[in-house]
Please model this.
Amino acid sequence: MIRRSRLPRLLLGLLSVLSAPAAHAQGTFRIGYSAEAERRAPLTVTYTATFPAGHTARWSFGDGGAAQGAQVTHTYYRPGTFTLVATLVDAQGREVSRAETPIEVRSGGPERADLTVLHAPGSVRIGAAGSVLYHPEPPRVLLDGREVGPGPLPLTAGPHVAQAQATGSAGQRLERRLTLNAAPFQTSAAFDSEVLRLTNRARAQGWNCATLRPGGPALPPLLPHPALDLAAQGQSAAMALYGYFDHTSALDGSSPLRRVQTAGLNPASVAENIAAGQTTPAEAVDGWLRSPGHCRNIMGNFTLIGLSYVTRPGSPYTRYWTQVFARP
Model:
């Protein structure tokens, strides 16, 4: 059994292209931004500017925040429409050019505390990705009643209680509580390496997702990334431990993107292939390559990959395979 998920994540924009007056600068003042496509609060936006040497950009975000530099990141915690103002200033601090644009931030829904859990052999990582809070104070994360960081946290076999606790913008108490069922499972670095080799071989051969055979343009190899390996392992392990087969976790409701963020990476785009029951890396990769949607992930515009094979006898499919693709 195989399933494929693709999550285009970034909304890209070019705010303006303004020519700087010749008396002050040579060249142009270009402003761009990127943010999650859904634009839901809390929304983090990365702004970038290119400008002539000897100048800099000043930013007013429209919600009282401000910054300076060629690349800045700002989080809008509340929904609304905000006017971004970017100003090009010269070495004497004089305004040379100016650009502005409305930034729409949609409601993320009711405020909530949430959890994302990544199991590993004998340990776990727990984060608050998925929480919606309209203020900058993050939730507290607890394991068995003790406040913890993201991990990895040692985890003995048996049940454990994870909690996220937060205070909403109106002072209300918010909490999410999960029971974790830690149990042994096995991984295989050799299988992960072989999946990587077969995946990159298909890219080098120019595997054609329409004809399902080599013959398209060759693509560069995907590079393994430890954070994506953690996200992939969290997905394979959760499917084995909690008896489901889906991109949405039956344990915590997390998406591939949430798992990657909890592992410590915040990429521009994410995709995930999963499979269950296949006995060898060749069988798993061949199944993905012969499924057009999964094939498009393998042959997609990604540069990084994470991999995880997990086996747990007694679980519904025994063997679970995950590929996580990302582009910074």
About this structure: Confidence is low (pLDDT under 50) at residues 7-26.
